[in-house]
Amino acid sequence: MNVVELKRALTTLRVGGMAESLEPRLFQAQSEKLAPIDFLSALVADELSRRSDRFIARRLKQAQFRDAEKTFANFDFDFNKKMNRQLIHELATAKFIDKKEDALFLGPPGSGKSHVAQAVGRAAIQQQGHRVLYREAHHLLEELAEAQLDGRRRLHLKLLAEVPLLIIDDLGMRKLPSTAAEDLLELVMRRYERASTLFTSNRPVEDWGKLLGDNAAVAAMLDRLLHHAHVIQFGPRSWRTKTADLKRSEITA
Q: What's the pTM?
């Protein structure tokens, strides 16, 4: 069997990583006089690496993050120095997901809540391979309403309840339907101590009853959400205000 035939056979066996690296690894084996076990080990490592990369890429696509570029690498922790950086780095390890704990990011618009929430989600995928789902709050509730009309509500709730990390972003940014409190309560109850939920909101939790229009439902939801929650206060400065000020400075310079 020659190299072309061997590559074709490896592809048929669904070990594409080995097929792709076969020729360079053969050249390496000849030039470095690798032992057969070392040559085979290198090929297997290439296959495992390729599978891992494709697995992570698939998880990232399934998460449906709003902003693909929001990572810890491009977040300036020094912009708001009072932020609990240690707790954020702890959340980035994804240990809170293993413990079925929750997180709540509060603060004014533009203070980095959504950025860090998505960065935490990406880290959970890249480091631990967790399934993550990102939804803006109003989109999540719209999807539930549509599922109710289509007779898919039970199935949709089941899917939302089972994902290890559900990120519900920007609660309070848009007007919500009258069923918002009941829908969120049901979702939080299904996920309580079974999976992790991360909320971000520009409103303090004391305002959520008025925001959602049902004090009793919100109280029951917060009772569960805050029981094992990591609460981080963001702000007070806004990234968007900073960017606008920089642009004005450039124009007047």
A: 0.86
